[in-house]
């Protein structure tokens, strides 16, 4: 992790940052919560519980508390939340857009200089040959061949060396640009399912909201949660649980199209964004997805029993000009209603 990211992470847990409890009380309450949850007292669980108790980040605190309340908080859930937390600091320490623009401008300047220099060097090479072959007075020819032309050729050779160095620098800058782009992509991608994570989702939904407000056309959000995912983990193990998450991500991704977007924003929670889609159409999409997931039966090695799963979903449509968090909250409330009224169903905020 870059030094800046480490420094920011340390500052996050400075005593003065803990605004709800004194440091001693926060530590004791954290350790007691870990004991009550019967999870290992390792740095991952300690960090997340400490975050939740002190509400350092309201979103993360809410995600941890939600997992605890629904009894889905375990090693797998904690690992996902912890990766998201660390990714936040890595992403913040990456070079800014201004740095990317600077790299692009530098590459353009180098390319322009190389092109201009090559043209001038080729011209000089041609002229040197013509002059050296010309029928000149002996004195002028001697001075030209002994002094002027060798010096000029030396300058041309030096320019060639400089061109070679500029080419090498351009390759390094291009590689740096590619690595920077890759790092940003990784920071916005869920490593388990290879789809956007919460940070990637935030970027997508903000762009979609800006476009909707400009065009005057709304979009829909479907929030999806796997029913009884903890039971799947308990019965089949976390490796199979991970496979289920990857499988569902692939299935959901195969069902969306065009500019639709899919992301994993929590342990077993996914969202789908449907641009220029009405509430009724989005509800139908969610219900069709629910039915397809319910019909699937997954074979698990070393288990006689096949694995089946269902999902619950909440649907909401963006109201032009509203705060994004309000839209997410409405979809989350609809999902909560679906989960608490029987599961394996779709509910909406309309």
Q: How would you summarize the topology of this molecule?
A:
Blueprint: H1 3-12, H2 23-37, H3 43-54, H4 58-69, H5 75-93, H6 97-133, H7 138-187, H8 198-215, E1 219-226, H9 229-236, H10 238-255, E2 261-264, E3 269-275, H11 279-295, E4 311-317, H12 324-339, E5 346-348
Parallel strand pairs: 4-5
Antiparallel strand pairs: 1-3, 1-4, 2-3
Q: Key terms for this structure?
A:
350 residues; alpha+beta; Alpha-Beta Plaits; 3 domains; five-stranded mixed β-sheet; 5 strands; 8% strand
State mean pLDDT (0 to 100 scale).
82
What is the beta-strand fraction?
5-15%
Helicity, in percent? 55-70%
Instruction: Indicate the CATH class of the largest domain.
Output: Alpha Beta
The largest beta-sheet arranges its strands as 2-3-1-4-5
The number of distinct structural domains comes to 3
The general outline is elongated
CATH architecture of the largest domain: 2-Layer Sandwich
The CATH homologous superfamily of the largest domain is named Reverse transcriptase/Diguanylate cyclase domain
Instruction: Evaluate the radius of gyration.
Output: 30 Å
Distance separating the two termini:
45 Å
How many strand elements?
5
What is the H-and-E element order?
Answer: HHHHHHHHEHHEEHEHE
Task: Extract low-pLDDT stretches.
Answer: 15-20
CATH topology of the largest domain, by name, is Alpha-Beta Plaits
Number of helices: 12
Structural class: alpha+beta
Largest sheet entry: 5 strands, mixed
């Amino acid at each position: 992790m870059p030094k800046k990211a480490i420094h920011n992470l340390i500052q996050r847990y400075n005593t003065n940052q803990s605004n709800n409890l004194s440091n001693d009380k926060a530590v004791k309450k954290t350790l007691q919560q870990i004991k009550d949850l019967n999870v290992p007292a390792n740095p991952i669980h300690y960090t997340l519980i400490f975050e939740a108790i002190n509400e350092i980040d309201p979103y993360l605190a809410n995600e941890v508390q939600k997992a605890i309340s629904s009894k889905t908080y375990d090693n797998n859930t904690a690992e996902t939340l912890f990766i998201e937390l660390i990714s936040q600091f890595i992403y913040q320490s990456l070079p800014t857009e201004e740095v990317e623009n600077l790299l692009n401008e530098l590459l353009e300047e180098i390319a322009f200089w190389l092109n201009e220099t090559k043209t001038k060097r080729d011209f000089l090479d041609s002229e040197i040959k013509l002059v050296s072959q010309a029928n000149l007075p002996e004195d002028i020819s001697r001075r030209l061949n002994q002094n002027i032309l060798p010096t000029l050729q030396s300058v041309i050779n030096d320019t060639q060396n400089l061109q070679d160095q500029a080419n090498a620098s351009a390759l390094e800058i291009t590689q740096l640009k590619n690595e920077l782009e890759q790092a940003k992509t990784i920071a916005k991608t869920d490593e388990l399912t290879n789809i956007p994570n919460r940070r990637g989702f935030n970027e997508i939904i903000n762009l979609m909201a800006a476009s909707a407000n400009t065009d005057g056309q709304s979009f829909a959000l479907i929030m999806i949660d796997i029913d009884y995912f903890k039971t799947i983990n308990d019965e089949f193990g976390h490796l199979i649980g991970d496979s289920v998450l990857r499988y569902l991500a692939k299935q959901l991704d195969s069902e969306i199209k065009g500019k639709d977007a899919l992301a994993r924003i929590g342990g077993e929670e996914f969202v789908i964004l449907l641009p220029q889609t009405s509430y009724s159409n989005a509800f139908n999409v969610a219900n069709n997805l629910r039915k397809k997931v319910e019909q699937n039966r997954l074979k698990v090695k070393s288990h006689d029993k096949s694995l089946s799963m269902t999902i619950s979903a909440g649907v909401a449509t963006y109201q032009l000009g509203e705060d994004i968090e309000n839209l997410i909250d409405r979809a989350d409330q609809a999902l909560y209603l679906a989960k608490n009224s029987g599961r394996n169903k779709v509910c909406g905020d309309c």
